[in-house]
Amino acid sequence: MTIFTFTKNEPTEETPLLHQHVSKESTPQQHPQSQQQQGSWWNWLIGSSANNIDDLEEEDGSNISNLELYKSARMSIETSKETSHYIFHNSSDSKNTELSVFGTLTEGNPVSYNSRKRPLLPTEVLENAIIGSHHRTDSVSSTVSVATDTMNTTHTSNDKIYPLFDDNYRETTWKTKIRILSEDVICGYKSEFHLYKNTPKNILKKKNKQIKRITIIGVHSFLPNKMVRALIGQNTGNSIRFVNKASKSVINWLRENNPDFALEDYTIDSLSIEGQGKMQDRIEKSMILIKNWMHLLESSDFIYMVSFGTSCTFAMNFLARLLTDYPHISKNTKKKKIGVLCMNGNFGGPIIGLDSKLVVRAFTSLENEIIKELFEYSKWNSKLSLQLNESIKRLIEDHNVKMTFTGHVNDCFIPLNSSLGIQFIHPNIRRSLYETEPIPFVSKLLNIICMMNNLGYYNDYNLIKDLSDKLDFNSTGRMFSDEKVYHESVKFILESTNLIHHQDLKIRYRSQPLSNDVFFNLLPWNLRSLFQDLIKIKHIQSVRLIIDLVDEFNHWNPNNNSNKNYKDMKYCLNFFEDFELNELIV
Questions:
Q1: Spans of biased composition, class Low complexity (predicted)?
Q2: CB–CB of 463/449 below 8 Å?
Q3: 456 backbone φψ class: left, alpha, beta (φ>0; ψ -120 to 50)
Q4: Residue 328 DSSP code
Q5: Which of 102, 49, 101, 103 is nearest to 70 (CA)?
């Protein structure tokens, strides 16, 4: 029997836990005070080890393929210290869940069980206890129960996501295809700058023929808890939650686009990749575990990967490695759909200077290395940045993967230029914004920039980069719990066209943010240049967008906001008060 003991007489939130055996000379009866201290804090969070073992022994063996394997796998997760790697598998064809944990006998032989309970990492338990976080423990739900939930729930979140897919892309026609082909053949240049939206008829036709087997992959890695508390302030979700939300969105999309929808006509599998550790370690260990379900990936018509925060870079590297080592997974990329949703991804590092707020001595050696990796992405020539560049290049150019980068406007950990991955340029990348508190004028401006970016106008005159460090950093948001985020991503992957001509991924790093004085001096000219580009785009009602933006500026009163940058922005753009659209067009 094992227990957790504290290294100090008085346990604190920062006290490390040691996993040790109880000797015959030391019993709970001999140390009642120590036993009481343990029960007063740790047991309140996760329950005593004795209770955990009792739970294991009370498991219905008839619902578990191998009870001993399940016990060892569960205990491996619940008693892990700094590194852990495991995958849950669920299918619409079965009510059971499969679990594979690296370093246990289930590594190459997943154990099957039927229980809504799931083992939790100690790190996850601590994250769930952060003030302001939701304490609900996500269970591995069957696809049938997820489908039922989609019929009984509605979108209640007041948070906004923009630009919407339907508002941003125009429908493709035969005239569009002929124009693109003729300009290439006759004029000798390619004018295909962005993707288009398929017609409803084409969507239904392709869906009925091609999408029958679906695999949804949730990817997540836990971070050192002290860092999460200090810099992020709330839990970072888990792969189970990502998969459940993604499954609902996929099923909703299938139902919306098919009046004869029946769940039994589809096979939907989910793989929840979870754990903690350094980047390369997570990739290597997860690659070993994923082999247990390689047959699912090979037979899938649609592979959908979702991730959040700092796990997004791991998701990109892992998927690129998977498709490189097993290229037959993505054979016939014109028919097979592969898409990725990255919510608030760490593509350019966290907010500059946050690492200086951390005390190195407060973390173990491995935790410091994990944290250091996060900030390496702010260096364009670091080993991790170059690895990420190569991974995204392979996914887009070799496997036609479509990606959605959704950034949180007011995030206090990942800046907007990082979460939107503005250095990556390709039509297969769609960018959108998630907002919990609208910022007058600024929100509309960011919406316009994203719309233009999605349509091939990548020169935003450095506005996103320069605005990123001038926004309010007041929350991390919980976009991974909002189904609208997943729904928009699914629409882009399944309703957009493929490129007619191959295009290489371009990577263009922007200059460092300008000083405030230089930024505000250049802002009027940069906005004018942006508007002149915007006026060239016809189908998104560009003139109306400009008029609405100017109108919102005139009603904007940033004096009520404590952010001085907004006041300075209002002051240096006062020419808007006498703005005439004709002046812009000239």
A1: 28-38
A2: yes
A3: left
A4: G
A5: 101
Here the tokens at position 158 are: 């007041």
* Amino acid letter, 401: V
Amino acid 41 reads W
Per-residue pLDDT of the chain (586 residues; tens, 9 = 90+): 433 333 334 333 333 333 333 333 334 444 444 444 443 333 433 444 444 544 544 455 557 778 899 999 999 999 998 899 999 999 998 889 999 999 999 999 999 998 777 899 999 999 988 865 554 556 555 555 555 565 555 455 678 999 999 999 999 888 887 877 776 666 666 678 899 999 887 777 766 667 899 999 999 999 999 999 999 988 899 999 999 999 999 999 999 888 888 899 999 999 999 999 999 999 999 999 999 999 999 999 999 999 999 999 999 999 999 999 999 898 766 678 999 999 999 999 999 889 888 888 889 999 999 999 999 999 999 999 999 999 999 999 999 999 999 999 989 999 999 999 999 999 999 999 999 888 899 999 999 999 999 999 999 999 999 999 888 877 666 899 999 999 999 999 999 999 988 999 999 987 777 788 888 999 999 999 999 999 999 889 999 999 999 999 999 988 776 788 999 999 999 888 777 777 665 5
Per the CB < 8 A criterion, the answer to whether 285 and 102 are in contact is yes
CA–CA distance, 339 with 336 (Å, rounded to integer): 10
Helix (H, G, I), strand (E, B) or coil at 586: coil
Domain with CATH 3.40.50.1820 in the chain: 143-437+472-507
3-state class (DSSP) for residue 211: coil
Pull the structure tokens for residue 183: 């300009």
Residue with tokens 């009602």: 541
Q: Hey, what are 532's tokens?
A: 């002149």
Amino acid identity of 322?
L
What is the distance between the alpha carbons of residues 26 and 374, in angstroms, rounded to a whole number? 42
Burial (CB < 10 A; 0-12, 13-18, 19+), residue 566, is buried
- The DSSP output letter for 171 is B
Find out if CATH 3.40.50.1820 is the number for domain 143-437+472-507.
Answer: yes
